[in-house]
Amino acid sequence: VGDRARTSGRTRTTCGYCGVGCSLEVLTRDGEIVAVLPDHDGPVNRGHACVKGRFAHGFLHASERLTRPLLRRDGLLTPVSWSEALDHVARGLRAAVAAGGPDAVAAISSARATNEENYLIQKFMRVAVGTNNVDNCSRLCHAPSAAGLTAAFGLSGGTDSLDDVEGADCLLLVGANPVEAHPVVGARLLRRVLHGARLIVADPRTVGLAHHADVHLRSQPGSNVALFNGLAHVMLAEGLVDDDFLRHRVAGLPELTALLAGYGPDRVAALTGVPAGDLLEAARLYGRAERPAIVYGLGVTEHLHGTDGVRALANLAILRGAVGTGHGFGINPLRGQNNVQGASDMGALPDLLPGYAKVTDPAARARAADVWGAPVPDRPGMRIPEMFAAARAGTLQALWIVGEDVCATDPDTVRVTEALETCPLVVCQELFLSETARHADVVLPAAAWLEKDGTFVNFDRRFQRVRPALDPPGDARTDFAAVHALASALGVDLGCRTPAETLAECARMAPLFAGISHERLDREGAVSWPCPDSLRPGEASLYRERFSTSDGLAHLAACPYLPPGETPDDRYPLVLVTGRRWAHYNSGNMTRRTANLQLEGVDLLDLHPADAARYGLGEGDPVTVRSRYGRAVLTAHLSDDMVPGQVFCAFHFPSSGVNTLTSRHADTVTSCPEYKVTAVRLIPGCV
Ligand code: SF4
User: Fold this and answer.
1) pLDDT level of residue 150 (50, 70, 90 thresholds)
2) What ligand 1 atom has the least distance to the C-alpha of 458?
3) For the whole model, what pTM was predicted?
4) pLDDT by residue (tens digit) across 28-51?
5) Distance between CA 354 and CA 617 in Å, rounded?
6) Is the Cβ–Cβ distance between 670 and 662 less than 8 Å?
7) Do 280 and 407 belong together in one domain?
8) Same domain, 408 and 283
9) Which residues line ligand 1 (CB under 6 A)?
């Protein structure tokens, strides 16, 4: 592809697919990757890697890679030079600000981009444009984790590390399928179970690890809060709590105790579909364990009451005294994308600056203004769904999207596409002409993770280095270079000449990362945040002395169960849950252009054989799925892992239209979409 520099060698970097953060060794010869090997010294993967990290790199050389900027002329995206493209964008941004002020511009940063790129993007929006309208795709996945864990404990991250979790004697795995979505974590958890740890799985489907579970809680999609309240009820009723910890380090017990009186096993069985006996057994296993750990995924967060779900789940760890005490391994979210933790850490959020300082806090703004030499806007900006709503309403004049295929992966994509078509200027930085890029006015050719320099933060808060194994093809540039070029086109100097300088600036501004630098990471491999001092190690396990809340206490939350936004009815009698498969990654723009396509070539609809019989469907039959919002055509896959009345599919092939189906409901606290509960009906064939 293009005139890629001829490079040969061996490069140590961090996987750019999921949030596990496996260390990889990339072998190149004459500008081509010849092998990707798991690094035996990798702090997270220790010599393992999955089918994505090891083999899904063919996309780098795909003939459809974008190698020149594209500008829409007479309705067609036409190749142009970078200077023509940037002039057009700069003119458009100036016009947008002139028409509607700085808040008429918004940016969607990228969980696939490095920390340094995310830092630069949010700095560009705040300094060069003058708005807090910047968000990232954590809005669509773990924003409820950030909100829920911060409210409970004070910091926006898991409480412990994967190494800690491996020491657990009881694992509570909730709403996650790590065997497919985070395979190296799945393998490490399975090894722990095979070595004797007890396992409770809470998931509507029989996910991979459920086959090894002591108890499988098959709760109805959307009933998490009732389930967690039921477990807490049993723990309190049977004295399976840490009284000393509750007395000295916890707030909110009386309110929670009062609420839990209404969540006895029989009522919870009626709300969740989980038999009372299973609930009792799970609560006793978790409550009696010496070192219990909770690991959870998007099955907890992507709900109308996702933040309540995180709070209600955190209650279990607090009641048991399993966080901040050394007697358990807390509560740990499995982050989805490679750098979704880092994108938020770097302040690519509408209400938070780097290191989670609030934009509404005058002292935090003053600190940032001091480092940046420019004032910081004080009004929180728009979240991603609000950006699309503003575009449809005509108030958003310019939208800059970095490495996110929002027309394929956001919910209710028909309305997302309408928003892009209405917005006067849409700029996209992409590897390929994605569904989103097709609707852009300007498309800037981007570099992939194997062509970048910087750092990622993985799901357990570890900073790790990302190093380029190849140069980008043709005129493609890193997002880092593109942001600088765009700032220059506007006459703004962002400083931060190199990724190392950029992380150093972030460290000066954010005490959580003050002790972390490229130089240190090159020497030590990985450092966890918080790390306030370059002479101290990062903290893999949090809150040993006090919690980071204002009063130093862990906060229990009394969250009542509320029903999901979508409920089945006669017209839409089934519940659709979406998620990932093992060979592909999100919208599939990368993995579909690799040999992994031979492993999974279509989006399947998993359904129970009884439902298949009801609809006259056999294995491999085409099936049309309809919801209140849209229509998708999938391939039927009969599976005993499903419960009758529920169906499951992934969203790796945008042409199947899965996210036209997903609903408009979103978490009431964070606006995270309710991907996990959509009422649908099936029609055999493609209609
Ligand atoms: Fe990459 Fe995740 Fe697979 Fe590790 S488990 S190789 S980080 S996709």
Assistant:
1) very high
2) 7
3) 0.92
4) 998 889 999 999 999 999 999 999
5) 51
6) no
7) no
8) no
9) 15, 17-18, 20-22, 45, 49-50, 52-53, 182-184
